[in-house]
TrEMBL record:
Its EC number is 2.4.-.-. Pfam families: PMT_2 (PF13231). This is ArnT family glycosyltransferase. It is a multi-pass membrane protein. The chain crosses the membrane at residues 20-42, 84-103, 123-147, 200-220, 248-267, 282-301, 308-327, 339-356. One of its GO terms (molecular function) is glycosyltransferase activity. Keywords: Cell membrane, Glycosyltransferase, Membrane, Transferase, Transmembrane, Transmembrane helix. The keyword NAD does not apply. Residues 61-199 form the Glycosyltransferase RgtA/B/C/D-like domain. PANTHER family: MANNOSYLTRANSFERASE YKCB-RELATED (PTHR33908), MEMBRANE PROTEIN (PTHR33908:SF11). It comes from the Bacteria. It is found in: Cell membrane. InterPro entries: LipidA_mod_glycosyltrf_83, RgtA/B/C-like.
Length: 519
């Protein structure tokens, strides 16, 4: 493709393609809605739910956008699982609309194929789980769409600058969703440096309009012990080292995400893909950058880190857009059919899973987790007692119990580097002298609990054949817990570099009464 294709008249828009779009869009939406109302809350969702209950300028692991989104859904739609999942259920429709808005001026037929390819991916049929990636993907795609519209303007007029500014605002919103938005910023830099140096002023305006987001995030981190930095750069990366399995897993994951049909056709028509990327038109060049730069970035990162499937999703739609503009016209329908078969296999698997019942999973390793998720109310009914404080020994269990109770459930013990929002929300000094019950899936080591209570006892309950153990401690000793547990948490997770300026640290202030605790 060496020239920008001309838009055909609306009358020439293929009827078959319109039917494909309508059928795929509606069928996938109905399936997502069904899964959303029948699948139990996951640990991540229950964790982020409490971000929506306690809206803030930031949270322990990530910037605040998903918490703001859940707070908005609770306030407008209601406090239900479908409410907090509704944004991700509708997300593919919104992303499809953004792709169409961005690409339609270039070629409306190929733009429609791009939307269809994206909608045919299995993730867009099955994903209903709200995560920090939901707003990241949304704002990232909107930012790219606005940039593409700006790049279509022949002159740097007021409309072009307005679109560049809008792209920057959306990029800032993506930054307030997750730090992977930095990869999108890097992609923009490569694109402008390589192809659009004459439009540096547009990039400068984008950066300026995005700056309020990092300013908000820096202010939050300064007042909260740099919790985002400690989690993302330090605590989660301790012990990371090279293993061959990591890049191999990345390659395998990308092959799956691309889907077999697309991978095969991309390899067969790689020359067309290269010609499209090398065209003088700005939009195909930008699409190529949006594919190549993130792929290389995550490939390099994979030598030390296991790349999560969700890490690449904010760039996922653009690969299908590039393919739609590169493949010969007679191969577009072939690609769609191959993708439809692949998505159909996933739908059949899901249908098969919904035909199973609880006993089907009894002999599997995940059966206890399934029981905990589907029988949460029954478990809590057997464990809860008036006058006792309920806790769990892990963050996943704690937030699932908390979501069912609609009452925050603390974690007893040091915990892990993930999900340390507990440190900001829970003041254990308030439990001095109280009776606490800690639910654990394993037989507890009573020596890990007895130092922090006047007396402890253990009992168990059974739910659908799965034992759950409860440690009941009476007379909680806060000072002992502060020294034995909170002190260890401080040592592991709050080794804040001295060169980072701080205006506050809720954990340190509660633990030692100072902005920075002495080592």
């Amino acid at each position: 493709m060496n020239a920008i294709p001309q838009n055909p008249p609306l009358a020439d828009f293929p009827t078959t393609l319109s039917r494909w779009l309508l059928g795929v869009g509606l069928a996938s939406l109905l399936l997502r809605l069904w899964i959303a109302v029948t699948f139990p809350v996951t640990g991540d969702e229950a964790f982020f739910y409490w971000w929506g209950v306690f809206p803030a300028w930031g949270y322990s692991d990530h910037p605040p956008m998903v918490g703001w989104l859940i707070a908005l859904m609770r306030a407008t739609v209601g406090d239900s699982l479908l409410s907090i999942r509704l944004p991700v259920v509708l997300l593919p429709l919104g992303l499809g609309a953004a792709l169409w808005w961005a690409l339609e001026p270039l070629d409306r037929v190929r733009a429609a194929w791009a939307v269809l390819f994206f909608w045919l991916t299995p993730l867009n049929w099955l994903n209903v789980l709200i995560t920090t990636d939901t707003p990241l993907i949304f704002w990232s795609v909107l930012s790219v769409a606005a940039l593409m519209r700006a790049e279509r303007r022949e002159q740097l007029d007021r409309a072009a600058y307005g679109l560049y500014a809008l792209s920057g605002v959306f990029l800032g919103c993506a930054f307030l969703s997750k730090y992977f938005s930095v990869v999108l910023g890097l992609t923009y830099l490569v694109y402008f440096a390589r192809y659009r140096r004459e439009r540096w002023s547009g990039l400068a305006l984008m950066v300026f309009c995005a700056l309020p987001a990092p300013a908000i995030n820096i202010a939050y981190n300064m007042s909260h012990g740099w919790s985002n930095i400690m989690f993302n750069l330090y605590n989660r990366n301790e012990g990371a080292q090279f293993e061959w399995r990591k890049p191999l897993m990345y390659v395998g994951m990308m092959a799956y995400l691309i889907t077999p049909a697309v991978l095969w056709l991309a390899l067969r028509h790689r020359r067309a893909l290269l010609e499209t990327a090398r065209t003088q038109a700005p939009i195909p060049r930008l699409l190529a950058c949006l594919v190549v730069v993130p792929l290389l970035f995550f490939a390099l990162l994979s030598f030390k880190k296991v790349i999560g499937l969700h890490w690449v999703l904010s760039f996922y739609p653009f690969g299908f857009a590039l393919l739609a503009f590169a493949l010969p016209l007679d191969k577009l329908k072939t690609c769609a059919k191959g993708m439809a078969w692949f998505a159909g296999l996933h739908v059949l698997v899901v249908a098969g899973l919904y035909m199973t019942h609880l006993d089907t999973w009894r002999n599997t390793k995940i059966y206890p987790q399934i029981v905990r998720s589907y029988k949460t109310a029954e478990i809590l009914q057997k464990v809860t007692s008036p006058g006792t404080v309920l806790m769990a020994d892990s963050y996943t269990a704690a937030v699932i119990y908390a979501y069912e109770r609609r009452q925050y459930t603390p974690v007893f013990g040091v915990g892990k580097y993930h999900a340390r929002q507990d440190d900001a929300l829970v003041d254990f000094s308030l439990y001095q002298g109280k009776t606490i019950r800690v639910i654990t899936p394993d037989v507890p080591n009573m020596g890990e609990f007895s130092p922090y209570f006047e007396s402890v006892r253990q009992f168990s309950i059974t739910q659908d054949g799965v034992p759950f153990y409860v440690v009941e401690g009476t007379g909680f000793k806060y000072q002992a817990y502060r020294e034995g547990v909170l002190g260890e948490a401080y040592r592991l997770f709050y080794n804040i570099p001295s060169w980072l300026p701080m205006t506050g640290c809720p954990f340190c202030e509660r633990y030692c009464g100072q902005l920075r605790c002495s080592r």
